[in-house]
Amino acid sequence: MTTFEDVLAAQDRVEPRDAMPDGYRATLVRQIAQHAHSEIIGMQPEGAWLTRAPSLRRQAVLLAKVQDEAGHGLYLYAAAETLGASREELLDALHTGRQRYSSIFNYPSLTWADVGAIGWLVDGAAIVNQVPLCRCSYGPYARAMVRVCKEESFHQRQGFELLHTLSHGTPAQHAMAQEAVDRWWWPSLMMFGPPDADSPHSAQSTAWGIKRFSNDTLRQRFIDQAVPQAEALGLTLPDPDLRWNADKDEGRGGYDYGAIDFDELRAVLRGDGPCNAERLAHRVAAHEDGAWVREAAAAYAAKHARPARPEVA
Ligand code: 3HC
Predict the structure, then answer these.
(1) Is pLDDT at 1 greater than 80 in this prediction?
(2) For residue 56, how far is its CA from the centre of ligand 1 (angstroms)?
(3) pLDDT per residue as tens digits for the range 2-23
(4) 124 lines ligand 1 (CB under 6 A)
(5) Residue whose CB lies within 8 A of the most ligand 1 atoms, among 24, 29, 34, 35, for a mutation test
């Protein structure tokens, strides 16, 4: 009989009906739920600009992206439900602060250029973090990530193109793009989590094939891709210590970078970020305002429920 350990050793997929350690299940519910919460809360900073987009084209592109994020949340809540968690429980855990969402969404989107910086940096970082998750040992999570990553590529591309337009526009537009990148760069690096030495979950998540690379490895991968992209944008990353180090990564090279303020990440995780209270209040209000939709859908489903098929002898 194939055991959980056999499946991991064969780099195969664990499926919902397979035997799995309680800790594996709990870790997946924690991570997938927080990933889903991040997608839903992440709609807020960009959603605030839907009615203020500078053109119909930009509004249509942003609307498509924000709708995608809602879909990513649904895929991920559905993946969490395969582990026995209920949507209601997970949303209650979010609304009562018992579960997190990504720190990055606790920062304000102050100008139109923020929509570009979020697409280029936040979705760019999300892609670096999510591509390895396509090879996660838990089947439903890995399969959800395949579609999410395809859509994230459009998200990052539209952000890059928006910033490129501003950066090569008027001096005021260039300045707006630079100011947004200055605000979003360091919080984007914090998306990858605490340093490996301070990550309580990484070792076990790696052993279980949930994490394929460490927090610092993915952070470095993101920095190495972002620096040349910033040059193509004509924008400067706000880190004077960024410089190419040919000896890094066993001679493959990589960028050295300045110290990240992990006290800031800890403060945001404690709930002391710029927008924590606003984001959660907005989310709870939206959930409460939508109660009638859920009740109507449930009533319709109950009324039109098909009679259970008689058991086949
Ligand atoms: N924001 C919020 N919480 C964070 C965090 C961050 N940036 N980084 C770490 N944490 C939390 C962890 O959740 C954990 O707390 P918990 O025990 O209460 O859950 C604690 O800090 C310790 O961190 P670890 O590194 O030990 O925890 P993990 O092994 O879970 O690693 C992670 C953290 C890298 C974020 C990992 O959970 C992960 O890869 N999650 C899936 C991807 C994800 O959630 N991305 C968030 C962004 S989604 C997004 O960007 C949407 C896109 O469309 C824009």
Answers:
(1) no
(2) 35
(3) 899 999 999 999 999 999 999 9
(4) no
(5) 34
- Rounded (5°) CA angle 131-38-31: 65
CA distance 138 to 151: 21
Nearest CA among 47, 52, 34 for reference residue 282:
47
Ligand 1 closest atom vs CA 72: 53
pLDDT of 313 above 80: no
Give the burial string for 195-230 (b: 16+ CB within 10 Å, else e): eeeebeebeebeebbbbbbbbbbbbbbbbbebbebb
Q: Which atom of ligand 1 is nearest to the CA of 192?
A: 34
Please state the pTM of the whole predicted model. 0.95
Helix, strand, coil in percent for the chain, rounding step 5: 65, 5, 30
Nearest atom within ligand 1 for CA of residue 68:
53
User: Measured from the CB, is residue 37 less than 6 Å from ligand 1?
Assistant: no
The predicted-structure confidence for 173-203, as pLDDT tens digits, reads as follows 999 999 999 999 999 999 999 999 999 999 9
Interval between CA 266 and ligand 1 midpoint (Å)? 12
Where does residue 118 rank: exposed (0-12), middle (13-18), buried (19+ CB within 10 A)? buried
86 Cα: distance to centroid of ligand 1 (angstroms): 20
Give the tens place of pLDDT for each residue, 41-95.
999 999 999 999 999 999 999 999 999 999 999 999 999 999 999 999 999 999 9
What are φ and ψ of residue 256, in 5° steps?
-75, 150
